[in-house]
Write a structure and sequence with these properties.
About 60% of the residues lie in helices and about 5% in strands. It has about 475 residues and is mostly helical. About 40% of the residues are buried. The structure holds arginine.
Length: about 475
């Protein structure tokens, strides 16, 4: 006896019902229902286009749109019943539409496949999330600019190899983070451009025999154009890989940022005070104030990079065109979006409350012979070859270490023992203030240049 599994939308071909475990195993509705808004948005545009092209009647279109609006409300009010039997978000919505409006509901899928439908939904979904991410990036940028402005002339040691290198300003250091965020935002917008192309009309893989108008659907959905190749557009997930790659780079930046905040808030550095609301105590050690937020962000960066790798591996062996493998793209995408938004948001909330311990930063720069290069440059300006100057300053630093003095604290006569070229104007260059003031070119750390960089950044943000 043949039994027809009539509950499923796509199952008349099957003599036997889907295995119960396979039904659960292959279903994606638990996670892809997150794209319900976009699925409805895509269906409304599709139905509108079908009616415009005479494939549906205006009445059928109106019924479909009315039904879809009701479904949207049901989902928002959480009265919509999601069923694993209907596998995914697309079939759940379509089944409910048919319950609500009857035969017109069954016509919605004309000239369409879940393959172009899902490809469209994720693009719409990511496009709107990119806007949310951009808003958070903007908040963080403003927070960094404000902190940089308060510290445009706050002197701290700059590091290479985590050893004191040369004095810089804290504002300059913060503006380095700002630059990273600028590039992140640019990459995100660039990714959006390639993502904003419409797959609908590609149907299962080869296009459709109905006289559809893909330009119309594309315009209705705010895409820049319909995709150029139906096989490519149902199977392409480059945009998801690009997005997670942009997100991974951004998380890597936040992770570096985190690493510095963690170091700087330690008793050993003691450069900053982290806001209490973003730290936690220890259950056993009463003195502890742990920088949990930066630590967690640093930890979460690995997870996003993991999603990037998952997506690359997901795609690398797939023949054209659509394969069920692609269903595995959703969870990495969704988790990347959530993780990224939460991390940037936490940072945007936290950064305005970071307090710079200016005196400690200053003293630390003083302890590290940060102006040694300035002394070498001074000797070069007086006519010495750089390598010789390098050698002499090395000797002066050794004296400083032995006698526990900064270069600016060594007397003129002692310095003159190393070279007769040194005269009392040397102290203008050996102070931390003199050192940063001398680096007054574009991109340099002199306070006026930092202020200029901040002003330029603010101007760019206001456009
Ligand atoms: N849930 C599926 C996915 O996420 C939708 C497309 C299914 N298409 C198919 N031919 N089985 O990819």
């Amino acid at each position: 006896m043949t039994t027809v599994n009539s509950e499923k939308l796509s199952s008349a071909r099957f003599a036997q019902a889907t295995d119960a475990f396979v039904e659960v195993f292959t279903a994606s509705v638990d996670f892809d229902k997150r794209m319900a808004t976009q699925d409805i948005q895509g269906s409304i545009a599709h139905a509108t286009m079908l009616a415009h092209c005479g494939i549906l009647t205006d009445h059928e279109r109106d019924e479909i749109i009315k039904g879809l609006h009701q479904i949207k409300l049901e989902i928002e009010n959480k009265t919509f019943i999601w069923s694993i039997k209907q596998e995914d978000v697309h079939m759940n919505i379509e089944a409910r539409l048919t319950d609500l409006i009857g035969v017109a509901g069954k016509k919605l899928h004309t000239g369409r496949s879940r393959n172009d439908q899902v490809a469209t939904d994720i693009r719409l979904y990511l496009r709107s999330e990119i806007e949310q991410i951009s808003l958070q990036i903007r908040r963080l940028k403003i927070a960094i600019l404000d902190l940089a402005e308060q510290n445009f002339d706050t002197i701290m040691p700059g590091f290479t190899h985590l050893q004191v290198a040369q004095p810089i300003t804290f504002g300059h250091h913060l503006m380095a983070w700002f630059e990273m965020l600028m590039r992140d935002q640019e990459r995100l917008q660039d990714c959006k451009k390639r993502l904003n192309v419409m797959p609908l009309g590609s149907a299962a893989l080869a296009g459709t025999s109905y006289p559809i108008d893909r330009f119309m659907t594309s315009e209705l959905l705010g895409f820049s154009r319909p995709s150029a190749n139906s096989l490519d557009s149902v199977s392409d997930r480059d945009f998801a890989i690009e997005f997670t790659s942009v997100a991974s780079i951004m998380m890597m930046h936040l992770s570096r940022f985190s690493e510095e905040l963690i170091l700087w808030s330690s008793a050993q550095f003691d450069f900053i005070e982290m806001p209490d609301g973003f730290c936690t105590g220890s259950s056993i050690m009463p003195q502890k104030k742990n920088p949990d937020v930066p630590e967690l962000v640093r930890g979460k960066s690995g997870r996003v990079t993991g999603h990037l790798i998952s997506l690359l591996m997901l795609m690398k062996s797939q023949p054209l065109a659509y394969n069920k493998d692609n269903q595995e793209d959703k969870e990495p995408i969704f988790d990347t979006v959530d993780t990224l938004i939460n991390c940037i948001r936490a940072y945007a909330d936290m950064v305005p409350h970071i307090h710079a311990k200016k005196k400690n930063m200053y003293n630390s720069a003083k302890r590290g012979f940060a102006t040694a290069t300035d002394l070498a440059d001074y000797l070069v300006r007086k006519g010495m070859a750089f390598r010789d100057a390098h050698e002499i300053v090395g000797l002066a630093v050794r004296l400083g270490i032995e006698t526990e003095r900064d270069l600016s604290e060594i007397s003129l006569s002692e310095l003159q023992n190393y070279s007769p070229l040194i005269s009392d104007d040397v102290f203008n260059y050996l102070t931390l203030e003199g050192s940063i003031a001398a680096r007054n070119h574009i991109g340099g750390t002199a306070p006026e240049c930092v202020q200029l960089a901040i002003n330029t950044a603010r101007f760019k943000l206001s456009r």
